[in-house]
Structure formats: C-alpha cells, structure tokens
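Lab meeting prep.
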Amino acid sequence: MNFNFQKARDLMVENQLRPNKITEPTILDLFKNTKKEDFLSEELKKISYSDLDINLDINRGYLKNLHIAQLIHNSLIKEQDKVLHIGGLTGYVSVMLAALCKELIVIEHQKKLIKKIEENIKNLNINNLKIINSAFQDGCVKESPYDIIFIDNPIFELSNSFKDQLNSKYGKIIMIKKIDNYLCKAYRITKNNNNYTNEFLFDVFTKYELYRKRAEFIL
C-alpha cells in the first residue's frame, strides 16, 4: 500500500502545529504544500512528518516540524525582506523561507548537500534563492545587509560579525543557542542602529550543533 504523504502533512499541521499556536494561514499552507519527503532520502521519507529530528549530516539535520514552524513564525518575514539562511541542508526550510521573502541567500558548505539544494530548487522553479558555498561562521558579507539572518541548527556562540551584516533598522537574527548537549533555547535578536534586544522564544531539545568554532559571546 502506498504511503499517503498528503494525509501525513495534513495531520502534522493539525496535530503538531495548530495546537502549539501556529495558526497563521500562510505558514500552515506552506507546511501543507511543501513536500518534505522530496528533500529526504528513501529511507527517511516515511518519517518526514513524524515528531522527530531527522539526521542528515554529522550533528546536523532537520529539527522537529513544530520547531521549524516556530522559528519561521517568529521571524516575522515580510515580502520585501532579504534573508540569509545559515545551513541549507537539502533545501526544505530554505524553500519555505524563499516563498515568504523577496530574496534568499543560503549558506551551505557540504558539496553533496549543495547539489541536493540545486536539484530541489530547479525542480520547484524557484528563482529568488542563491546558494553560497562558505563557512557558516562567516555569513556572507558581500550580499549584506540582511533584514533577517535565520540559523535553524543550534550554536553555542554567535560571532559579532553577524550583527554587522544586519539591516541597521530592525534587522533580526533568529537563532538557537545551545546550552548543553541536548538543551537549547531559541532567540530573536533585533538590531536598532547599535542597540540590540534579545527575546527568548522557546526551548529546543536536540543534539544538533551547526558549528563548534569559538567566537565572541553575545548572549
């Protein structure tokens, strides 16, 4: 019997997202209509919409669907925004971000993952997404400033250089700070000229860590 992915997407939205205050129609439609299974290998497809992290690389992968939705919801992305996504993996989250903004820059350093992103955006005819092969810690200065920097795998520390790449008027960083091996906390950092506000958003429990290079500590 064929697995019904559309039904699984609908159930994920109704059972995982709506009960946790993700009710914005645009975001719900994104999760209903973006085929996550197309971004995963055959052995992972059937857990696409389960309430689980999905491992794709050493210490990296897709967070639970709810956490992805919470991060996108709290990003407050506008149609005219330019967004930097740090760590594109196979493009699932990137594709949803691209649907919400004017321009998306995706940083990924694994060549096999870059190839998958390229295949997926070509299949979906997405033309506002640019992939940069670069170290995650550096961001992408040449494409800055950004209205939003979106980091959806946890990091212990965030380099101050990211702040310099933000739009000076209410540019935002959405990130997950790693507290220990499993506990993490999501934050929204908002820039207003040289002033910054840090807002705690929600707890995340995952073993993932985007990178381990030590940098300036800002939270």
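Slide two material, second protein:
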Amino acid sequence: YNRRAYEQDIKKLTADKKFLYLSADVNGLKAVNDRLGHAAGDELLCGVAGCMKQSFEDYGKVYRIGGDEFCVISNISDINILLRRIDNFLDDVKNIAADKHYPYSVATGYGIIDDSGIDQCFKVVDSKMYQNKRASKKGRLN
C-alpha cells in the first residue's frame, strides 16, 4: 500500500486493540543508485517490498511510506511470531543483496500500538530502527 492508504489506516486505529508496528528503512539505496543506476535502485526497492509482503501480508498491511521507508501495521498478537517474521524478512533481503551484489541492508524497528498511543509507539520504533541503522553502518549487522 502507499502513503495515502497508510495515513487513512493509522487514523482508524483504536486504543481498545493492540497492533504491532514494524518500520523498515533501506540502508545503501543511494550507493546502489550511484554505482549501478536508478533501474537497479528501483529493482532493490521492489525486492525489499516483495520480501516484506511475503513475510507480513498474512498478518497485516505493508506500506511504502517514503522513498526507501516501509512499514507494517499488524494484528499479530504474539511478539515471538513478529520476531520470526522479521528474521525471515531480513534473511530474504540478505539473500537478494548477495545474489545481486547490491551493497545494502535494511534497518528495522518495532513496537506495540496500544493505549499509550501511536506517538509513543513511533518513538520506540524509531529509536530501535536508528540503533539498528547505526549498528549496521558499523558492520555489526548485515
């Protein structure tokens, strides 16, 4: 789904039900565009979107909310299922990067949208994602 659908769906969320929120940001898109061309960058984004859809569409909606930013709003009630889905997603992304020799990775963050509010969830998610992004840039993640 696109940004417009995301914004409409966010407005519909209610505090009486918990939702898991996953944010994903592609690291290295500019390097792929610069080295291999924008067609390769587009292919990369389509690959990430496909991996995300494959991993999460049975559990919620996948959105592209910006250039290289994606998210999932999920009805998964078990955090362990979410963690397994994230691992599967990241493994799939890593395989594409290796197959295509693309110098990129994906940073993720997740949290629960509950009665503490969407804004609080976004703060938690962004913090986790940027910790992941910094670790990735230091070579600690793939």
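Talking points for slide two:
The mean pLDDT is 87.
The radius of gyration is 15 Å.
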